[in-house]
């Protein structure tokens, strides 16, 4: 077992290692083989770190092709890691999780008094979720509705997910969660699983990735186990399938998934799918399956805006971190790491872990030094010309007024706002900014920046204008 602090440190290191592998291997290979890896236990005595994958197939594939690279990366990140062991997640042993015994004529609830067999790992009742660590079906105990921060970007998906897990039968089926990488769709899948089991203690659920579904279906075909596969799969009360885009082009797997959806819907069961694109954008998907995926509710999770990113950081700090993180650092991270929530939280974890391990206080300077890779990948180069154009459109003033000598209030205030944004969003110095505004002195720019900062604290309308402009420029 590893304590909470060590788990935090390992997670921070893994975020860095995973990001490096994504650059080396490319997005597709990383998403298919590296992203599903889950951290296991770390034995300090032997220096052995366990890495888990959901299936025997994927564990063997990663062990054969990436074991040396993973081992080297971990040794560089943590010298105390001397061995890396890749294996299947305990309790999720390939096809056994989907087989019916020959004498098992009827489906039984996972928490019945009959002792669970090793092959029952994928059918889980709420009683089994009480333990510490990863649940046998792969539900992460930390990914619940309580830990999911809701904002304008994800409120529809969050509400729909909670409705899907409630005692009352939802008015839509299936639920399809669409979001780009790292925006929270997998979090909601896990949260649905936890909440559904809490509301339906005797229910059975099945959680998997589309890749795992395909691999195990092919194994069933090869082993003449398709009847058992279908019977077991259709015996679940809730089906959760992640990364459905990876089922593209697999005709036999698509057909089996189609029949499974029809069978479960006919019995009033609940189904949730997640993908990085809308159903209509899934190339290579059979039309009948496409119509099933689209027939319920398609809930889109938009990229987190600045308010939601800030709320996620504050929520995580309040729940998990004993380390003090200044407000300006939180604001800096929320404003700068804007590609996805996973990178945002990973950056925070890394910063806290580094501060705790080195005894340094968290500061803006430390954040800029230690999060160089993440920050550079997220920074979109915003130019002063772009800022001036956006501000002029917002306030409906002519672009030439940015460099003019006119001092009418209707012109001066937008010009000052543009100077303020230029300082906040670009690395330009005060003199450089001044030159872009008609050759003004640097003291004029400093005055404008301080004035707008002050007005934002006293004038709600001004603060609203600046926030709106920031959203436009950072989107």
From TrEMBL:
Keyword field: ATP-binding, Cytoplasm, DNA replication, DNA-binding, Lipid-binding, Nucleotide-binding
Chief location: cytoplasm
All residue ranges annotated as the AAA+ ATPase domain in the record: 171-300
Region (Domain IV, binds dsDNA): 356-475
Annotated GO MF terms: ATP binding; DNA replication origin binding; lipid binding
Stored SMART domains: AAA, Bac_DnaA_C
BP terms from Gene Ontology: DNA replication initiation; regulation of DNA replication
Functional summary from the UniProt entry: Plays an essential role in the initiation and regulation of chromosomal replication. ATP-DnaA binds to the origin of replication (oriC) to initiate formation of the DNA replication initiation complex once per cell cycle. Binds the DnaA box (a 9 base pair repeat at the origin) and separates the double-stranded (ds)DNA. Forms a right-handed helical filament on oriC DNA; dsDNA binds to the exterior of the filament while single-stranded (ss)DNA is stabiized in the filament's interior.
Quaternary structure and interacting proteins, as annotated: Oligomerizes as a right-handed, spiral filament on DNA at oriC.
UniProt comment concerning the protein's domains: Domain I is involved in oligomerization and binding regulators, domain II is flexibile and of varying length in different bacteria, domain III forms the AAA+ region, while domain IV binds dsDNA.
Protein name: Chromosomal replication initiator protein DnaA
Encoding gene (name): dnaA
């Amino acid at each position: 077992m590893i304590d909470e602090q060590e788990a935090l440190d390992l997670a921070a290191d893994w975020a860095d290692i995973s990001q490096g592998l994504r650059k080396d291997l490319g997005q597709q290979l990383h998403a298919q083989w590296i992203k599903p890896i889950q951290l296991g236990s770390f034995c300090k005595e032997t220096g052995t770190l366990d890495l888990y994958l959901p299936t025997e197939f994927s564990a063997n594939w990663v062990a054969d092709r990436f074991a040396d690279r993973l081992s080297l990366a971990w040794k560089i990140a943590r010298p105390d890691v001397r061995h890396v062991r890749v294996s299947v997640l305990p309790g999720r042993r390939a096809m056994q999780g989907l087989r019916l015994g020959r004498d098992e004529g009827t489906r039984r609830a996972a928490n019945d008094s009959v002792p669970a067999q090793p092959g029952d790992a994928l059918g889980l009742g709420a009683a089994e979720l009480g333990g510490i660590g990863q649940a046998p079906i792969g539900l992460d105990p930390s990914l619940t509705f309580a830990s999911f921060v809701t904002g304008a970007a994800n409120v529809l998906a969050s509400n729909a997910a909670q409705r899907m897990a409630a005692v009352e039968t939802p008015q839509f089926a299936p639920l399809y969660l669409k979001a780009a990488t790292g925006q929270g769709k997998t979090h909601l899948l896990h949260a649905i699983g936890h909440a559904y089991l809490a509301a339906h203690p005797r229910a059975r659920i099945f959680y998997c990735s589309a890749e795992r579904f395909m691999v195990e279906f092919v194994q069933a075909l090869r082993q003449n186990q398709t009847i058992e596969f279908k019977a077991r799969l259709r015996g679940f009360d809730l089906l959760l399938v992640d990364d459905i885009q990876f089922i593209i082009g697999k005709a036999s797997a698509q057909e089996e998934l189609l029949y499974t959806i029809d069978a479960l819907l006919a019995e009033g069961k609940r189904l949730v799918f997640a993908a990085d694109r809308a159903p209509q954008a899934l190339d290579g998907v059979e039309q009948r399956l496409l119509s099933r995926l689209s027939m319920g509710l398609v809930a889109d999770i938009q990229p987190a805006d600045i308010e939601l990113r800030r709320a996620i950081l504050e929520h995580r700090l309040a729940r998990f971190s004993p380390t003090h993180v200044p407000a300006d650092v939180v604001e800096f991270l929320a404003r700068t790491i804007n590609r996805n929530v996973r990178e945002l939280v990973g950056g925070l974890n890394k910063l806290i872990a580094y501060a705790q391990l080195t005894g340094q206080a968290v500061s803006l300077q430390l954040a800029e030094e230690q999060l160089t890779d993440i920050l550079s990948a997220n920074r979109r180069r915003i130019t002063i010309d772009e800022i001036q154009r956006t501000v002029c459109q917002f306030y409906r003033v002519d672009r030439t007024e940015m460099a003019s000598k006119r001092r009418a209030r209707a012109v001066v205030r937008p010009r000052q706002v543009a100077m303020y944004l230029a300082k906040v969003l670009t690395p330009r110095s005060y003199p450089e900014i001044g030159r872009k505004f008609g050759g003004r002195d640097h003291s004029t720019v400093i005055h404008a920046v301080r004035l707008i900062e002050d007005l934002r604290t006293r004038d709600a309308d001004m603060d609203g204008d600046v926030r709106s402009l920031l959203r436009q420029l950072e989107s």
